[in-house]
């Protein structure tokens, strides 16, 4: 039986329009289930059932659960933000640039508290996929911050000695403050997201002033 070309085209367009919506639905449901049950304890079938689709529909978009986790990292804006570190200008004093970068990192992490809690907890529990994503993110972050520090060193605004260690110290200050906020420290439980981010930024600012040289020759 021949299919009307116009009908076939209409069906194809409908599927194309629904594709991005289905992909987003899969990611949203995956994040919720991963956060509630853990990555290892959530199956593709669980995700399909909660999304109201078939297993095959998930595999059409993602080859595996690991690929789903990778997509969540990208979807949440982490990779884009880390790539932008390569373009950070060095017009401002070093401390001002680092505080601006720290505020951006705090905002991004706080917007994704559930997802980062998932990565941290699953990684600490020994999940290979979560550990891999954590290590990838930290390595990219470290390279990005070191790149910024290197550009300041090239200008003579920073001693060119062990910039990798300094980059790690900057990251540890920001990350440790955020992790503690997940456990209710440094911020009030009743604080709104903007208040929580302001409190974290203030804490990090004071700490970074002790870590980073003032850049004055």
Report on the architecture of this protein.
- The protein has ten helices and no strands.
- With 217 residues, it is mostly helical.
- It has two domains: 5-72, Orthogonal Bundle (Arc Repressor Mutant, subunit A); 76-211, Orthogonal Bundle (Tetracycline Repressor, domain 2).
- It is elongated.
- The relative contact order is 0.10.
- Residues 7-17 have low confidence and may be disordered.
Concise account of the structure shown:
The chain is an all-alpha fold and 217 residues long. It has two domains: 5-72, Homeodomain-like (Arc Repressor Mutant, subunit A), CATH 1.10.10.60; 76-211, Tetracycline Repressor, domain 2 (Orthogonal Bundle). 75% of the residues lie in helices and 0% in strands.
SSE arrangement:
Blueprint: H1 5-37, H2 44-51, H3 55-61, H4 65-75, H5 78-84, H6 94-111, H7 113-124, H8 128-154, H9 163-182, H10 193-211
Helix pairs in contact: 1-2, 5-8, 6-9, 6-10, 7-8, 8-9, 9-10
Category by helix and strand content: mainly alpha
> In CATH terms, what is the fold-level topology of the largest domain?
Tetracycline Repressor, domain 2
Helix content: over 70%
Kindly estimate the percentage of residues that lie in beta strands according to DSSP: under 5%
Tell me about the largest β-sheet.
Answer: none
Shape: elongated
- Report how far apart the termini are: 82 Å
Total count of domains: 2
Strand segment tally: 0
**Count of helical regions:** 10
Question: For this structure, what is the CATH homologous superfamily of the largest domain?
Answer: Tetracycline Repressor, domain 2
Architecture (CATH level 2) name of the largest domain: Orthogonal Bundle
């Amino acid at each position: 039986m021949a299919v009307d070309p116009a009908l076939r085209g209409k069906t194809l367009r409908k599927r194309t329009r629904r594709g991005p919506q289905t992909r987003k639905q899969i990611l949203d449901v995956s994040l919720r289930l991963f956060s509630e049950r853990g990555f290892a304890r959530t199956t593709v079938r669980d995700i399909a059932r909660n999304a109201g689709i078939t297993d095959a529909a998930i595999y059409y978009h993602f080859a595996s659960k690991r690929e789903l986790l990778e997509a969540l990292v990208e979807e949440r804006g982490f990779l884009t933000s880390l790539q932008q570190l390569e373009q950070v200008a060095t017009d401002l004093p070093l401390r001002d640039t680092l505080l601006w970068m720290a505020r951006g990192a705090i905002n991004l992490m706080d917007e994704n508290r559930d997802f980062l809690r998932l990565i941290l907890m699953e990684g600490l529990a020994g999940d290979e996929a979560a550990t891999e994503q954590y290590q990838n993110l930290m390595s990219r972050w470290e390279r990005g911050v070191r790149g910024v520090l290197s550009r300041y060193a090239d200008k003579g605004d920073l001693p060119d000695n062990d910039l990798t260690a300094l980059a790690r110290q900057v990251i540890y200050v920001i990350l440790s403050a955020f992790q503690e906020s997940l456990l209710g420290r440094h911020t009030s439980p009743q604080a709104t997201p903007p208040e929580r981010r302001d409190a974290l930024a203030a804490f990090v600012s004071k700490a970074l002033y002790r870590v980073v040289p003032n850049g004055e020759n």
